[in-house]
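## retry 2 of 3
previous attempt timed out at serialization; input unchanged, resubmitting
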Amino acid sequence: MSQGLGVCLVVGVGDGLGSALARAFADQGHVVCMTRRARNLDALNLVAHSIREAGGVAHAFGVDARSEDEMVELFATIERDIGPLEVVVFNIGANVRFGIRETTARVFHKVWEMACFAGFLAGREAAKAMVPRGRGTILFTGATASVRGRDGFAAFAAAKHGLRAVAQSMARELGPQGVHVAHVVIDGAVDGVFIRENRGNVDDLLEGDSILKPEDIAASFVALHKQPRSAWSHEIDLRPWTETW
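## retry succeeded, writing output
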């Protein structure tokens, strides 16, 4: 069983922000649990290994976050075998672009499942664990699409708007019970494989602090968790200094 600061679960860990979030909370002394689809478990185990090499404690789980049964079992396993969950971060993106005429029902539903429904499942299970203890932090990764839609992103914006609504409702319900719920709007491009495959000049943008750095975003998530309850934030937005509002 974990000691000290308890367990941080990051749902949705890839090579960019997810792994930065896991490392940031591990550096703070949390036991870190991470999820990714089972077919990508080898990559997730590499992240866990790197955290352990740096002196942290990390566990990797191959989980489909859209599956109610798998999410219920994940939370039960962590609480039973690893320790009490103090922080849960939902970090699944599902950023895809389709014109409205090309957006199939299957695409729309799948994006909603990944970016909204899975977040509901994570938030619900986190609340079940945290409310009886009267403490805990639940953090949701949002995007520009959380607050405004744009051409080609109807499915993504609908899902992210929905996730934001879930977070708002949870904050009003759970805050008076001691659980801090916050939503982080990431308004800009984040360094990672996706951006490097779809955008040039990334290294120059990083040099000029003109693109969001995963480790800097992660620092804000840690700061949210550390906020005293007399001054909790529900929503913050993060953007590079060069980004237009």
